[in-house]
Amino acid sequence: MEAVPLVQPLLFAWPADCSKDHMPEGPSIVILKEAMAPFEGRKLLAVSGSVKAFDIQLLKNKTVTFKTWGKHFLLCFPKFTVRIHFLLFGSYLVNERKEATPRLQLQFANGEVNFYACAVSLLNQLPDELYDWSSDIMNSAWNSRKALAKLDSIPDTMVCDAILDQHIFAGAGNIFKNEVLFRIRIHPASLVGHLPAAKRQQLVKGTVAYAFDFLKWKKAGALKKNWKVHTKKICPRCKIPLHKSYLGKTKRRSFFCENCQKKY
DNA sequence: ATACATGTTGGAGC
DNA sequence: GGCTCCAACATGTA
C-alpha cells in the first residue's frame, strides 16, 4: 500500500493558465481583485519594494480597498490612489514569494502580496475622479451605446486597432482582438467606418462576451485550450492555413482567416 | 541563445 | 499645439 503524505505540500500546482503567468488583460485583473479579497479593508502593516517614483511608506498603517479598471489594478486610499499596471511581463503572488525583488510588497496581519515587474504610480485623485467606469468591459457600469458612439467617431481606424483602444474597450488586449474578430467573422484590417451597423454591434457585444468567457476559462485553467485562432496555424472552421501578420497602427500580431473573416 | 510575447509611455520629429 | 512613430522597458520561455 502506498504511503500517503501526512501533510500536503505547501506549494501546489496552479492550472496551466491561471494567474501565475500572464496578467495583462482585464479578466486577469478581475481575478487578482478576487484573490485580494482577504485584504480588502485591512490595514497595511508594512510596505516594501523597489518603486522609486514615490515614497511607498506613505501607504504604511493605512487601510486599503481595491478596484479595477480595464488592465489597471487600483489600491484605494482616502486621499489618493496607487495604480498598478502589469504591462506585458508583470506578475503577482499572494502569500508566496519568488527570487526577484518585488516592485511592491504589501504586508497585512493575515498575509501578504507581492507585485513584480509592474508599473506602480501614485495618483493624487480618487478612482471616481480618474476613471470612466462605463468604458471598462468587465464593469457593471459598462455602456455599449457609448462604445458604439466612440466607434462612430473613428471611421478610418482598423478594427484591429479599435479593439485595443483602452478608451473604448478598457481591458481588452491582443488575445481579445484575435478571438473576437474570428468569432464575428470580421477581417482585422477592416475599417470601422465600413462596418455595417449590425457588425459594429457584434463587435461591441462580442468583446464583452469574450471578456466573460476569458474570465471563466482562465479561472478553470483552460484559456489557451479555448483559443480558436490566437497563436494557431489552421482555421478551425474551414481548415485552411491562418494568416499571421502585424496589422494597423498598433502592429500587434493578428491571427485571422482570409476565407472566414470578411474584409469591409 | 536569440527572439518573441496577453502593453504602455514619453520623447523626437513633423 | 497636436499627431504619429518608435525606442525603451521588463521577464520567462522556446
Keywords:
264 residues, alpha+beta, N-terminal domain of MutM-like DNA repair proteins, Helicase, Ruva Protein, domain 3, 2 domains, five-stranded antiparallel sheet, 6 helices, elongated
Helix/sheet category: alpha+beta
CATH architecture of the largest domain, by name, is Orthogonal Bundle
pLDDT < 50 stretches: 1-19
As a whole number of angstroms, the C-alpha radius of gyration is 20 Å
**What is CATH's topology name of the largest domain?**
Helicase, Ruva Protein, domain 3
Give a short synopsis of this structure.
23% of the residues lie in helices and 20% in strands. The chain is an alpha+beta fold and 264 residues long.
Task: Describe what this molecule looks like in 3D.
Helix 3 packs across helix 6 (197-219). The chain is of the alpha+beta class. It is 23% helix and 20% strand. It has a five-stranded antiparallel beta sheet, with helices on one face. Strands 2-7-8-6 form a four-stranded antiparallel beta sheet, with no helix packed on it. It has two domains: 10-130, MutM-like, N-terminal (N-terminal domain of MutM-like DNA repair proteins), CATH 3.20.190; 133-256, Orthogonal Bundle (Helicase, Ruva Protein, domain 3), CATH 1.10.8.50. The structure holds a DNA duplex (14 and 14 nucleotides).
